[in-house]
């Protein structure tokens, strides 16, 4: 039973590691998990049924045929098909296994699945599966080898001391070998295995993406922030809790604000035709780079500029998000060795930046912030000013009249922007399902009819109204901000935090950010309190550390780790810092003493238990020991005859119950039971002749049914 449980656990961990890699789509993942659950609950008696002898071969051929058809007739990826076949092969083996030899195949497949999970995924889900395999694998391997040896040795017709065939199932059910101590020791083997694995991991960092290039990210890339926004086709923006990025903010107050508005800019659009925003220019050119630094409009100063770190999940198009006062970047792909930002980033229209993805692991980059909080984009050539003032040809005149009415008597562009922003925030209602999207003139309908809409309507309204009063504007899409993660000390920005706002060009200042959406509706919406929020923050923080320190472990981190250890060693060796190292030394000593005490206590308990068992055996006479072995052979004979003794029923009670039931073998069973009881507990001596007589009578009991059946068959044959 223990072997089966451990083998099942190992197989399940291997399959889950494949599913957690994200290589399968949602439906295939659920199909694999459900099939795995059904395979695990198949009873062993069903697996040995003669009618199902060739079931595994038949199912395997069907699966192979289906996968071949998928490759030939569809555009399915060969990698996807192979990984799905590997998972199906394990499920088939689990459902149709017979004996320890098949269980060893299950273990080998599970280990191969774990390796494949390393190549395909490597996320926190894989990490948990890996830790589970470390604990379960030693016990499963030892028990598998032990079981196969037992089954192989006794399958060749071995007999016990009474001359009867060895009861292999009884041996496999025995707890004399596989007890708590055995299981504890085998599972503890995972500790040195883990230590050795961790040592290899630290010594040999990941120096390239290698097979990780096979990872094609079937977890789904975020979609959005392209060069087009249609007011009539914008869906529900604020309902997706999936993590988009993690943002680490420098110089946070204590305590940090639970929610923070950052306006992380992705794409800007300058042309509006009455329904759709687009970019009037289309170009793509590599950015400049100097020592790994990418300037935006000027080079940053790494020595003094504050640094914001952004850990971006995969997104399509691969847009780089920037706060309103960024001066430059330092880019690095997950798992990449060194920094080569000059070949990674490209500049597009309206200050848009994109990266060149080399895998499906997103991007980690540092953003240098202006110390004076100056806007990122400060220039607008006179020749380009006109396109930021263009209005749709069929724009209703009352839209222009409304802009002039709201800004009457207001001369400065900045004041006009604030006035229009305030009108939109206070006189209009936020609504994700705005009816204005279906109107031929969505902006006009929003301003004068429905007066409710989502952020795209607010930003479009402000941009067009300001253009109507000669203030250059452009529409911006990105993420509004995030919620603070108490464990990871970063702000979690989710896909539901996608937002739209306006950039207004002010002479002498540059492109300034304005957000006309009501602040309560534009703020991040993630829950801050409750058990779910607490668990969510813990999982996301753990995932970040795993991605950064395990998946992203490279030569740079190895060098940094060695430098940290070296500096700590030097500080601890100096006379001024000896007091700082003493608490650590005491902590290590206390842990070592606790572990040593635990080991000594365990050895003491084990030694005392062995002494008690030997003392108990020493109190038994040779006849009592022989009687016990003889009665075990009698129990095996009773099992053959269909009258086994229940474990809760004493031997004498069982024999008397058979006699009361007038069983034909009851008198012989009662006589042999009394012989056993007199020798086991009455002090009677069993001679060699008595032992041989007992064994002979047990053999006669086992053959009684065969003789009776043969006699009845001969009687039937002799009758006319």
Automatic annotation (TrEMBL):
Domain Transglutaminase-like, first and last residues per copy: 447-518
Keywords: Membrane, Transmembrane, Transmembrane helix
Pfam families the record matches: DUF4129 (PF13559), TgpA_N (PF11992), Transglut_core (PF01841)
SUPFAM superfamilies: Cysteine proteinases
Highest taxon of source: Bacteria
Annotated TM spans: 130-146, 182-204, 585-604
Full protein name: Membrane protein
């Amino acid at each position: 039973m223990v072997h089966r449980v451990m083998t099942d656990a190992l197989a399940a961990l291997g399959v889950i590691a494949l599913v957690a890699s994200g290589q399968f789509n949602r439906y295939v993942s659920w199909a694999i998990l459900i099939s795995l659950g059904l395979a695990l609950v198949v009873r062993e008696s069903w697996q040995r049924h003669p009618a199902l002898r060739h079931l595994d071969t038949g199912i395997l051929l069907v699966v192979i045929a289906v996968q071949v058809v998928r490759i030939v007739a569809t555009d399915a990826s060969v990698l996807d098909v192979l990984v799905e076949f590997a998972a199906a092969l394990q499920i088939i083996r689990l459902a149709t296994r017979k004996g320890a030899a098949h269980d060893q195949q299950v273990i080998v497949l599970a280990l191969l699945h774990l390796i494949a999970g390393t190549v395909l995924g490597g996320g926190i889900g894989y990490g948990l599966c890996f830790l589970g395999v470390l604990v379960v694998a030693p016990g499963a391997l030892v028990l598998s080898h032990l079981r196969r040896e037992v089954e192989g040795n006794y399958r060749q017709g071995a007999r016990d001391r009474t001359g009867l065939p060895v009861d292999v199932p009884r041996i496999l059910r025995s707890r004399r070998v596989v007890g708590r101590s055995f299981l504890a020791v085998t599972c503890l083997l995972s500790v040195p295995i883990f230590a050795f694995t961790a040592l290899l991991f630290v010594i040999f960092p990941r120096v390239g993406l290698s097979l990780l290039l096979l990872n094609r990210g079937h977890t789904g890339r975020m979609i959005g922030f392209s060069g087009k926004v249609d007011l009539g086709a914008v869906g529900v923006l604020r309902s997706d809790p999936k993590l988009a990025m993690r943002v680490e903010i420098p110089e946070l107050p204590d305590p940090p604000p639970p929610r923070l508005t950052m306006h992380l800019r992705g794409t800007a659009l300058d042309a509006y035709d009455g329904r759709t925003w687009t970019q009037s220019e289309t170009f793509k050119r590599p950015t400049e780079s100097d020592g790994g630094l990418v300037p935006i409009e000027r080079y940053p100063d790494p020595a003094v500029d504050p640094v914001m770190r952004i850990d971006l999940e995969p997104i399509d198009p691969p847009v780089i998000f920037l706060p309103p006062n960024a001066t430059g970047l330092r880019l690095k792909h997950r798992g990449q060795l060194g920094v080569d930002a000059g070949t990674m980033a490209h500049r597009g229209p309206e200050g848009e930046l994109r990266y060149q993805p080399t895998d499906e692991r997103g991007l980690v980059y540092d953003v240098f912030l202006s110390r004076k909080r100056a806007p990122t984009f400060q220039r607008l050539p006179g020749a380009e000013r006109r396109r930021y003032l263009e209005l749709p040809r069929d724009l209703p005149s009352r839209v222009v009249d409304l802009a002039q009415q709201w800004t009457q008597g207001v001369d400065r562009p900045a004041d006009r922007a604030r006035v229009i922003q305030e009108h939109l925030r206070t006189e209009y209602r936020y609504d994700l399902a705005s009816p204005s999207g279906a109107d031929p003139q969505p902006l006009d309908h929003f301003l004068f009819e429905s007066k409710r809409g989502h952020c795209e309507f607010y930003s479009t309204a402000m941009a067009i109204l300001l253009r109507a009063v000669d203030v250059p504007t452009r529409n911006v899409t990105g993420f509004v901000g995030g919620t603070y993660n108490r464990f990871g000390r970063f702000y979690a920005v989710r896909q539901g935090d996608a937002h739209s706002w306006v950039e207004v060009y002010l002479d002498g200042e540059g492109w300034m950010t304005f957000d006309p959406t009501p602040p309560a509706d534009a703020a991040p919406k993630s829950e801050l309190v409750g058990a779910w929020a607490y668990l969510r923050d813990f999982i996301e923080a753990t995932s970040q550390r795993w991605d950064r320190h395990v998946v992203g472990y490279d030569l740079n981190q190895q060098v940094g780790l060695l430098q940290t250890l070296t500096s700590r060693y030097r500080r601890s060796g100096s006379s001024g810092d000896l007091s700082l190292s003493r608490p650590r030394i005491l902590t290590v000593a206390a842990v070592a003493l606790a572990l040593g005490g635990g080991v000594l206590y365990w050895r003491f308990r084990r030694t005392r238990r062995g002494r008690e068992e030997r003392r108990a055996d020493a109190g038994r006479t040779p006849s009592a020991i022989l009687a016990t072995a003889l009665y075990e052979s009698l129990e095996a004979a009773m099992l053959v005859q269909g009258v086994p003794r229940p474990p809760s029923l004493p031997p004498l009670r069982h024999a008397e119950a058979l006699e009361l039931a007038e069983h034909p073998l009851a008198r012989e069973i009662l006589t042999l039971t009394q012989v056993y009881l007199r020798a086991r507990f009455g002090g009677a001596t069993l001679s060699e002749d008595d032992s041989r007589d007992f064994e002979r009578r047990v053999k006669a009991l086992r053959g009684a049914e065969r003789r009776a059946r043969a006699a009845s068959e001969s009687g039937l044959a002799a009758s006319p």
